[in-house]
Amino acid sequence: MSDRREAVRANAKYLRQVRPIDPEEIATYVEGEPHPAVVAQVLREEAPDLELIERADGIFTPVPADPVSAKIAADGPVRRFPERYATALEDLLVERYGVDWHRGPSGDLVRSRIRDMKARYLDRQPVTYDDDVAAGYAIYHLPGYYAAIQYALEDLAERELLGRTLRVLDVGAGVGGPALGLCDYLPEDALLEYHAVEPGAGATILERLLEEAGRNVHPTIHRDPIESFEPPLAPERGFDLVLACNVLSELDDPEAVLETVLGWLAPGGALLAMAPADKNASIELRALERALEGRSVDPRGRDDAGKSDDGNTTRQITVYGPTPRLWGGETPSDRAWTFDVRPDLEVPAFQTRLDEAADGDGEFVNVDVQFSHSILRLDGRRRLEGGLEGSGQAKLAEMDRHVTNRIDCTVAKLSRSLSEAEEGSRRRGGDPNPVYKISDGSESVDHYAVVTNETGLNEALGAAEYGDLLALENVLVLWNDDEGAYNLVVDEETIVDRVG
To answer: Residue 146: CA atoms inside 13 Å, Cβ hemisphere, count?
Structure first.
């Protein structure tokens, strides 16, 4: 490190404890009085280590200590893919294919790559990501993945588990949908040190789009396969958040990869894995979650605060959420097809252009926000704390004892309505009946709450968000032989309350 850089660092370390850091002031303290712009650039480069954020006026200040607040609870659903990212993507497409990228041979090429990519995915075949496939992937998937990650992050922010100083590893970052969503979820006064692991062609698109992120986002792209990646870990610090989004199905051994990267978590950190909502991907994500649960890891990114009372740093993998574990010692073994659904986004112009240059039938429009996610931790924290032992409530694992009886139980809601009902048919007496997947973390077969008569006393079931904890009182238990599942019938005699 040069003497000048070290002098800037030393002065910044001192001033951060006293007052906001002005590059012009520091310049006067450094030998040779470098230009303030040079000092500002050094401060930007050293900001992650010094834990500084840059304000719009060019002044640097320490990162606030308070955690990130829940953004969606305050601002409402994600409505659109931001224009600055959309413009940057179209600029890339114009550079690669020309101003009429969506028409003629180039448009046909991109559309064919999207069709082939979707077909291979549905056939569970590997996809090779060259530049054209990466471009098609970005056009088709960026908006939905941008939104999905923000809903998943809300799980952590709601419980004040997302700090304003974040060191993040993004496994298989692709073209950057989750990365951009993360950047925009964080407030302007948060500091993001972002490391992407992406060996494929998507890294070029990711690199360009990250240029549009905030001034306090500090990205590094590692073009290595995750299997051979060596994280830049200081002995005392790991990653606060590890992302593994829409990549697990492309790994040869996703279980081994997740176990490895969990060992890179900082104390109090979390791993957020996401998968598409389709049946195979969602069930495979839950299988990974269950395979890793309870396994011991020896964290590499640890400090003294990460040690247990006996000084041992080995930690067990805990499923934080959204799937619950409400009974001590019980884990689920049902089919586990569960996913969240959120409001559609506005259609971005780049999708409209590509679609209308063909038949305009919506084949290349994709603004659905549907996803499965799992959050794993090493500190024992859970999104939903259980402790139902001795409560007198019925356990889903023992539901065969209660068929044709009415019971009380506590469960998490793990789906939107699975029926074909339109929004209006959710009203009392609507047909077909709303159906919701439910879980208490003990079940070996699927359980569903079926609303046959919605009343003011049970409407909390329909109003609850994905993952919310609910108390069901006087619900009727029936066996559904066609589905091989238990139906808990919610009718005019049933009371449903949200818990916590």
So the answer is: 30
